[in-house]
Amino acid sequence: MTEQTLEKTQFKWAIVGGGQMARALVGGMIKAGVVSASNVILVVPSESTRRWWDENQPGVQHADLEEAVQQADIVMLAVKPWVIPVVMNQAGPFWSGKLVVSIAAGVPLSKLCDLAGHGRVVRVMPNTPCLVGSGASAFCGGDEATDEDRTLVASALEAVGIAAEIDEVQMDAVTGLSGSGPAYIYILIEALADGGVAAGLPRDLAMKLATQTVIGAGEMVQKSGMHPGQLKDAVASPGGTTIAALQTLEQNGVRAAMIAAVKASAARSKELA
């Protein structure tokens, strides 16, 4: 599917579930013009969630599950993993001909395809920075997902960040790294700001500097093409302040803690399957 076709698409998207990840991904897609709010049909259980969508994404429609699936061209499943079988069984007769996109962590393609009754399924692991156009997503397709389907999903994800097509066996690792990763970085930003306050900076300035430092460091890695270790060494002059700080980080196991966090999240993703 071409970019021009995507810009003019009238595909209807049914979004089952309206929590944080759906808000981030769909909100980013609407902002980028991949889909118009009027072509989004929401299936959300609570009044407060419906109210959030109406206030923040005016124009979206609401429907019950069966009606939404019947009307949609693409159905995005944005519910907890253990809710997937309930939802898909409830709308069982209506999955035929639909492109099914699941963002539920840990639910394998085999289960999704079995519940849908066909293999036109794409499994996605996005992350919440999709809302500000800086998402990092990965996806894999079922055996009946067409090149057009994969292009559509990739284009939607790329409108809100970067996207990579992967083998399903890698999906748990993606969940541990980029899916859960923003939370790790938020902790680091908060900790950096706390360190700045402890060293004598006012809170607002410490937070501003910590946030921009993380953004700038990420862009240096992305745009320079250099290995993070090279960039680190370029900052750490002999006997200077940075090498003293790096020694403290190593002594406190920061590197090992980050590796362990990714592995723990990936392992939990496997358990959810």
Automatic annotation (TrEMBL):
GO molecular function, one term: pyrroline-5-carboxylate reductase activity
Domain Pyrroline-5-carboxylate reductase catalytic N-terminal: 14-106
UniProt subcellular location: Cytoplasm
PROSITE patterns named in the record: P5CR
Binding site for NADP(+): 78-81
Pathway: Amino-acid biosynthesis; L-proline biosynthesis; L-proline from L-glutamate 5-semialdehyde: step 1/1
Family matches, as SUPFAM superfamilies: 6-phosphogluconate dehydrogenase C-terminal domain-like, NAD(P)-binding Rossmann-fold domains
Domain annotation Pyrroline-5-carboxylate reductase dimerisation: ranges: 168-272
UniProt main location, coarse: cytoplasm
GO CC entries: cytoplasm
Keyword Lyase in annotation: no
BP-aspect Gene Ontology terms: L-proline biosynthetic process
InterPro entries, alphabetized: 6-PGluconate_DH-like_C_sf, NAD(P)-bd_dom_sf, P5C_Rdtase_cat_N, P5CR-like_CS, P5CR_dimer, Pyrroline-COOH_reductase
Its EC number(s): 1.5.1.2
EC class of the enzyme, as a word: oxidoreductase
Catalytic function, reaction form: L-proline + NADP(+) = (S)-1-pyrroline-5-carboxylate + NADPH + 2 H(+); L-proline + NAD(+) = (S)-1-pyrroline-5-carboxylate + NADH + 2 H(+)
Keyword list, A-Z: Amino-acid biosynthesis, Cytoplasm, NADP, Oxidoreductase, Proline biosynthesis
Role this protein plays: Catalyzes the reduction of 1-pyrroline-5-carboxylate (PCA) to L-proline.
Family per record: Belongs to the pyrroline-5-carboxylate reductase family.
The name this protein goes by in its record: Pyrroline-5-carboxylate reductase
Originating species: Rubripirellula obstinata
